[in-house]
DNA sequence: AAAGGCACCAACCGCGCGCCA
DNA sequence: TTGGCGCGCGGTTGGTGCCTT
């Protein structure tokens, strides 16, 4: 298959957008929407390729874009989500309303990565704090996850595959909150048994409200997800599933429905 | 004050995927 | 089934401003 060129290079402008171009693009999209990005610049009278227009709109001009610095809460959320999702910026951005993948990517590379590496360098090995706080009652429960191995992380692995959910707040129904940045110092490393064995004694009666996700009867969810083809065939659905669990209210005693 | 280095961020590039004819 | 097309994503680059020497 021969790929068509991204855009006609001849005569098309590149580089920073002028305010007039922004104005043209914004007013055109507000009037007509953006059905076809490739055709849009021609119809709008812009000397840009569709790709450039799309990027400008998505990353800068869209009305719901949140401008300004990231809050510490947003930054912590990014760190947590990055632990879960890796460099899947669009997936991370989907959980941060008003923030774009490009913006998050930039913040990660320029700020958060360094901060995490610095904290990793001074990392000490401690037992993880399993924190679940209710935004109204400030109830905090702690417990120790089973079948998890903890080791000191080196700087290269700290930001890639570890899955420390220990400080994820479940009390906010919209956003993951990470109230205890200190707990970033303890990165649990998941071993094989985590994925294949129940993380706890399944005979125990358990609810969402008193167990963290990875203490949840994992095999039960594995089975369910496999049945729904989400676990093997659709990583995004799987992550959304876990994200749903993380963000359930602390009061919930219901198991997630499928 | 000037030059070099660094950090930040907007924008570009190339690839892969899904849709459709 | 195949190939073309459009879109979205992640990695990378380049411009600009600030800081340090």
From TrEMBL:
It is found in: Nucleus. The keyword Lipid metabolism does not apply. The keyword Cell wall biogenesis/degradation does not apply. Residues 9-61, 62-112 form the Myb-like domain. Keywords: DNA-binding, Nucleus, Transcription, Transcription regulation. One of its GO terms (cellular component) is nucleus. Coiled coil: none annotated. PANTHER family: MYB FAMILY TRANSCRIPTION FACTOR, TRANSCRIPTION FACTOR MYB13. Pfam families: Myb_DNA-binding. SUPFAM superfamilies: Homeodomain-like. One of its GO terms (molecular function) is DNA binding. It comes from Vigna unguiculata. It comes from the Eukaryota. SMART domains: SANT. This is Myb proto-oncogene protein. Residues 9-61, 62-116 form the HTH myb-type domain.
């Amino acid at each position: 298959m021969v790929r068509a060129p991204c855009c006609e290079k001849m005569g098309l402008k590149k580089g920073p957008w002028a305010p007039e171009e922004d104005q043209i693009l914004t007013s055109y999209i507000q009037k007509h929407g953006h059905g076809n990005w490739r055709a849009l610049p021609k119809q709008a009278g812009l000397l840009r390729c569709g790709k450039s227009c799309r990027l400008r709109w998505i990353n800068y001009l869209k009305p719901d874009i949140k401008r300004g610095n990231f809050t510490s809460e947003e930054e912590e959320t990014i760190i947590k989500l990055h632990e879960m999702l890796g460099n899947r910026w669009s997936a991370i951005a989907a959980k941060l309303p008003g923030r774009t993948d490009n913006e998050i990517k930039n913040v990660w590379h320029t700020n958060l990565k360094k901060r995490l590496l610095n904290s990793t360098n001074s990392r000490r090995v401690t037992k993880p704090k399993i924190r679940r706080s209710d935004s109204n009652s400030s109830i905090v429960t702690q417990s120790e996850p089973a079948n998890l191995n903890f080791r000191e992380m080196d700087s290269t692995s700290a930001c890639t595959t570890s899955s420390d959910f220990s400080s994820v707040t479940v009390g906010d129904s919209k956003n993951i909150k990470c109230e205890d940045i200190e707990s970033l110092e303890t990165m649990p490393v998941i071993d094989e048994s985590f994925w294949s064995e129940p993380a706890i004694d399944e005979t125990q009666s358990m609810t969402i409200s008193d167990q963290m996700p990875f203490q949840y009867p994992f095999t039960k969810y594995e089975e369910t997800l496999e049945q729904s083809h989400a676990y093997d065939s659709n990583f995004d659905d799987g992550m959304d599933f876990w994200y749903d669990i993380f963000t359930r209210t602390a009061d919930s005693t219901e198991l997630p429905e499928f």
